[in-house]
Structure formats: structure tokens, C-alpha cells
Design goal:
The protein has 17 helices and 14 strands. The protein is α/β, with parallel strands linked by helices. It folds into 4 domains: 3-277, Aldolase class I (TIM Barrel, Alpha-Beta Barrel), CATH 3.20.20; 292-321, no CATH class; 322-381; 391-522, Alpha-isopropylmalate synthase LeuA, regulatory domain (Double Stranded RNA Binding Domain). α2 packs antiparallel against α11 (266-277) and α7 crosses α8. The two termini are 40 Å apart. The structure holds zinc ion (ZN). The site of zinc ion has 6 residues, from loops.
């Protein structure tokens, strides 16, 4: 039996389905590139049949992928499999992933199918997929609540039909490590042709057992584990790939397997996800939470100084957290700046380096010390806009507790200046209304949050907005020591994305209600400690 564990990442499919995590095409591509750098073996890029946007995203990821496998999920239906094939066929290594539920509950109430019918359909669809693509994965949905004898029959038959990977998911997060061990061992012992396929685990975290179950599956013989970055996914999410990786690396005495994931890329990957979605991991989240390597207690600090191993089972450096001795400031040169950005996970090409260095110098004039968090906010909010994009020239706001707020905003577009005045219940609202009047592209504000980047009085405000034209959503980020300016910059970033996408945004459609911007949204979101 091979001792390599295949890491199957479903951040862009199972993870992306979770509320708040939906991404547009550009964001999915960016995330896919990060995952490739992290070293996962398979990326499940989406569910191609779900929408034209999903299809385009899977296709774009497949078209641009390197040597790793790109999979697309498909129900056991010809049209789904066709869509998955069309979307992934340009990948160097495409995979069609198809599934059918096998538990009595799902068969009886959801599929209204007999066991025999389900078995027949599974065989037929695996054969159909194999005619299109040599790499086919079959999942027995709700495997952990499936009758074991029936499971063994299905597994044997779909392997005969050509499935190369058999996934036994704990779809509802109900299993314990003991159940998982029994299930995998039974399949390995009873299915005669099981050596022709790789067994895979896909464990949900409803009882908080995702990682424990995945490790139990490996011990019992699974050689592929499915998971996501930060453990995002349906309901309570999936096994977190960073936790699985560090468990195997830290406890290699018990789990003597190899994995291709480069743990030093973990922090950057998690950071990319939270920067795209604006959802930060809980501070005490294992491996990637902001407290995961913080030692506050005096006894611990004393121990750590004497010997790091007293209280540290793995080093922050091993997951890619960088130690930095020098604070950057006014007198730092471009070389030091570029080097630091690279250490933080943002290698810059020349043009970008020049532009960002200018922005960095401008920031130095407004702020005495520049921390790593300031630099990350700078790079994550900075975009290079062309002359067809809207940029900020100047603004004035008038606001107080006894008056209606007014904002006068001047924007630049193709070298020309445009100015509008708008009123609102607060200065941010007034400024955003003025932007909307100028660009003549109506939009609703779907999400707005303001965070202080660092703790000091001269801290920058980082504003994140999500706007919608009613069909798609667009994100924007802006930082400034002035929160109104940060609000305008973030809105302009989102507006430029909206206009540039030209109705081709390809994100998931928005069903939720649009939010009205009110002044009370400016409080309660600030969480200074929840970073880095
Ligand atoms: Zn799942």
C-alpha cells in the first residue's frame, strides 16, 4: 500500500457553497493558484452544471492549471457529467467526480429509488464518465449511514465500471472515528477488487470530528482525504487541510505518511482566502488563528525562552508565519520593501513594486511606523486601475449630529473630472451615494465593514464593501487613515470591477436581500486583534 496521502481540496466547491464564501471567477482563479502553490494534489474547482458562472470558473481554472488534477462535481446524470467533462477537458489532468446517495434514507426520501436502481445508475454513469475521461471518482453520498453490505457491492461494481477513486463521505457529519474505521476496514477486507482504486474520506465537522475522522480513515487505509482551507464548507464545514497537514507532519511517528503540501504556504493560503472573502478565522482556530502561536502567560513565555519545545509542538515558521526584526518606515528603500512583501507572501513584479512603493511612501507621510499588517492591508487593497476606470480626485463631507450629512465627490475618468453632491443619513452613505450618481451605474450595498488595521491612534481604517447590481456581487477594499476616504476607495474598487465585468461577472447569484447602509453598520465590526 502506498504511503502517500493524496490531498483533495474542495475549498472552491464544498467551501464555496458555504454562506459568505461565494467567489467570482477572478477570485476563484486567484485562490486556485494559491492552492497549487500550497501543493494540494487535486482541486475540485466547482460544480460545472450548477450555473454558467460555475462552468466558466471550473473551465478557467482547468485551462490555467499546472500538473495537478482538476476535478468537477457532477450528479449521476449524463448532462452533469458532460458539463464536468467540457469544463475540465483542457486541464493537463482532468477528473470527473460523480456521486449518488446510497443510504436508505436518501434513496427512499430524496432519490425515490430502489437499491438496485441506484446501483445500476451508478455503474452506468461511471462507465459514461470513463468514456470521456480516464480519471473518474465516484462518491457514495451519505456513506456513513449506508448499509455496509450494500456499500461493498456498489464499490465493487463501480470499480469494475472504471472508477479510480472511491470516496466514502460522512456527508452529514454523523460518524465517529470508530464508525469510520469499521467502514473503511470492511470495504478493504470485503471488496475483492478494492486494490484497483484509491479510497477517499470526506468528513464533515458537524460534531467537530472532521479531522479525527479523516485521521481514522487514513489509519484504516484511505489514501485520499478531501478537505478545505480553514475547514470551510457546508454547515459546520469540512476537515481543515492545514490541520490535517500539521497533524501528519507533527505526529509523523503515528502517521508515517508523506504529503505534498508545503506547510510553509499554509498561512499565506489562509490569508488569501480571508482577504478574498473578508471572513477571518476565529482567533483560537488551530494553526491559522491569530492566537494559535501566541503565548501570553508568563510561565509559558519563560518556558519558551528557555526552550521553545516546552510549550510549542510546532514552530510558527513551519506554517509560514514570518518573524520580522525590522520595522519599515520613511527611510526604508524599495529593496527592503520588496523583500518584506515577498516574505509576507506577495512577490511583486516590477510595475507592481513601483506602484506599491509609491503608496507605501505616501503612507509613511501619514503614519510613523508601518507594521506588517499595514503592508498586508496596502497590498490587498491596492489595484492598478487603467484610464477607463474611475478613480478618486477629491472629496469633502459635512456631517454632524444635528444635520443631514452631505458629500461632494470628484472622480476622474478618462482624464476628465466629474463631480456630484449627495445627502445621506451619515457621511459614508452620502459619499457612496455621490459615487453612484457620478458613475451612473446603480448598485446596492450588500456588505460594509470597517476594521482598524493596527491598534494605535494613527491606525489606518480598512473598509471592505460588497456591492451588487442585482445579479452578481463585486468586492472592493480600501485603506486610509481617513475612514471616509477608505469607504470611497473601496466602493470605487467594487464599482470598477462591476463595470469591467460587463455583465460577465460569473459569480454565484445573489439571493439574499440587499442591505441598506445605515450608520450603525459602522460600529461593531472593528476587531483589532483579529489579524495576523
Ligand atoms: Zn461535503
Amino acid at each position: 500500500m502506498q504511503d502517500q496521502i493524496i490531498i483533495f481540496d474542495t475549498t472552491l466547491r464544498d467551501g464555496e457553497q458555504a454562506p459568505g464564501y461565494s467567489m467570482n471567477l477572478e477570485e476563484k482563479l486567484k485562490m486556485a493558484k494559491r492552492l497549487e502553490k500550497l501543493g494540494v494534489n487535486v482541486i475540485e474547482a466547482g460544480f460545472a452544471i450548477a450555473s454558467p458562472g460555475d462552468f466558466e470558473a471550473v473551465k478557467a481554472i482547468a485551462d490555467n492549471a499546472g500538473d495537478l488534477i482538476i476535478a468537477s462535481l457532477s450528479r449521476a446524470l449524463e448532462k452533469d457529467i458532460d458539463a464536468s467533462y467540457q469544463a475540465t477537458k483542457n486541464a493537463k489532468r482532468p477528473r470527473i467526480h460523480t456521486f449518488l446517495a446510497t443510504s436508505d434514507l436518501h434513496l427512499q426520501y430524496k432519490l425515490k429509488m430502489s437499491k438496485e436502481e441506484a446501483l445500476e445508475r451508478s455503474i452506468k454513469m461511471v462507465k459514461y464518465a470513463r468514456n470521456l475521461c480516464p480519471d473518474v471518482e465516484f462518491s457514495l453520498e451519505d456513506a456513513t449511514r449506508t448499509d455496509l453490505d450494500y456499500m461493498c457491492r456498489v464499490v465493487e461494481e463501480v470499480i469494475k465500471a472504471g472508477a479510480k477513486t472511491i470516496n466514502l463521505p460522512d456527508t452529514v457529519g454523523y460518524a465517529t472515528p470508530i464508525d469510520i474505521e469499521t467502514m473503511f476496514k470492511t470495504v478493504l477486507n470485503k471488496v475483492p477488487n478494492v486494490d484497483k482504486a484509491i479510497l477517499s474520506a470526506h468528513c464533515h465537522n458537524d460534531l467537530g470530528l472532521g479531522l479525527a475522522n479523516s485521521l481514522a480513515a487514513i489509519k484504516a487505509g484511505a489514501r485520499q482525504v478531501e478537505g478545505t482551507i480553514c475547514g470551510i464548507g457546508e454547515r459546520a464545514g469540512n476537515t481543515a487541510i492545514e490541520e490535517l497537514t500539521m497533524s501528519i507532519k507533527t505526529r509523523n511517528d503515528i502517521y508515517p505518511y508523506t504529503i505534498d503540501v508545503n506547510s510553509k504556504e499554509i498561512y499565506k493560503t489562509a490569508r488569501a482566502l480571508s482577504s478574498i472573502t473578508n471572513i477571518k478565522p476565529f482567533p483560537s482556530k488551530a494553526i491559522i488563528g491569530s492566537n494559535a502561536f501566541a503565548h501570553e502567560s508568563g510561565i509559558h513565555q519563560h518556558g519558551i525562552m528557555a526552550n521553545a519545545k516546552t510549550y510549542e509542538i510546532m514552530t510558527p515558521e513551519s506554517v509560514g508565519l514570518v518573524k520580522t526584526e525590522f520595522i519599515l518606515g520613511k527611510h526604508s528603500g524599495q529593496h527592503a520593501f520588496v523583500k518584506r512583501m515577498e516574505d509576507l507572501g506577495y512577490p511583486l513584479v516590477k510595475e507592481e513594486a513601483n506602484r506599491l512603493f509609491k503608496e507605501f511612501k505616501a503612507l509613511c507621510d501619514r503614519k510613523k511606523t508601518i507594521s506588517n499588517r499595514d503592508l498586508l492591508a496596502l497590498v490587498e487593497s491596492s489595484e492598478s486601475w487603467g484610464e477607463n476606470d474611475w478613480t478618486l480626485d477629491k472629496f469633502v463631507v459635512n456631517s454632524g449630529n444635528m444635520m443631514t450629512s452631505t458629500a461632494c465627490v470628484t472622480l476622474l475618468h478618462k482624464g476628465k473630472k466629474y463631480e456630484e453632491v449627495a445627502v445621506g443619513s451619515g457621511p459614508v452613505y452620502a459619499a457612496i451615494r455621490a459615487v453612484e450618481k457620478i458613475v451612473k451605474h446603480p448598485f446596492g450595498l450588500y456588505d460594509y465593514s470597517l476594521n482598524a488595521v493596527t491598534e494605535h491612534r494613527d491606525a489606518q481604517g480598512e473598509v471592505f464593501v460588497k456591492i451588487t447590481d442585482g445579479e452578481e456581487f463585486y468586492r472592493g477594499r480600501g485603506v486610509s487613515t481617513d475612514v471616509i476616504e477608505a469607504s470611497i476607495l473601496s466602493t470605487l474598487a467594487a464599482v470598477n470591477h462591476m463595470i469591467n465585468s460587463n455583465g460577465l461577472a460569473l459569480g454565484s447569484s445573489i439571493n439574499a436581500q440587499q442591505m441598506d447602509l445605515s450608520d450603525d453598520m459602522l460600529v461593531g465590526h472593528s476587531d483589532k486583534k483579529n489579524e495576523g
